[in-house]
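User: Fold this; tokens only.

Assistant: Input:
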Amino acid sequence: MTITLAATFWMNIKYGFNIFSAAHWAYLSELQAYRTNIKPDFYISLIVAIIIGLTGLYLLARQKMQTFFIEPSQMPPPPQSDTPNILTLNKPTKPVHQPIQDQNSAKPVAPHIDVVRPMSPTGLSRNQPTPNDTRSVPTPKPKIMVPTSSEPSHTAEITKILEDNGYIVKPCARIGKLVKPVVALSYDQTVWICSENVSTTDITDALQTMITVFDDTLGDSAGDINVHGCIINAPNTPENSDTISTFATLQEFQEFITTHPNNKPADYDAELFDAVSTYISTVTNYIGKQ
């Protein structure tokens, strides 16, 4: 158990990999199926943890097996008592006549009876007050319903704007604090993360999450994939940057995407782009389950 916990702690900190998660193993198998470059020390860490764990199990099992083989000379002598040995029970024994005591001289002894207190007929537990208990019973606090945001959702409209302009939209349930963001891929290998009514901090954290997964799985090739965030109706007053674009309304976002459609470049490689598209689908599916 110690080796398992240590290995889990190491793999989570070093590689962000949970060995108890079926989704993580499925994600690893998909990366191996597409022959994605994975750091060799990731496999070395798993092999070392398995070897140490099997060695520890062998040592524990070896100590218990030694206790089964005890030399006859090491066996303790049988206890000396008036109780006959279990091996001699089948041998005939002489009848033992007990003297009959006089009924007048012998005093009857009351048998010992363990009195079991019956349960309370009202079914009250120890923590519940009895009918005679005058202490006040705390009443449970009512749950306060937190009102959800009244801002309308335009996820379907954002998705349609991107698809109409040639972008490949990838389904994603969650990225960090973003719930159901619209993730799209362009032919220049740029991943677009679009959401509405969120702060620049939330969209920055989502972009950093994607970059971290790219670095952990692709290594030196992670720089070939770019990320860009789009915020519609941000609650604060952000400023546009190289990686984040903000729009006051959905109409402004549509005008921007219309002027920046996803057109195929002259050196477009269909096989390479299909591999990148499949990889992004795997990443969004993996992050959405976190």
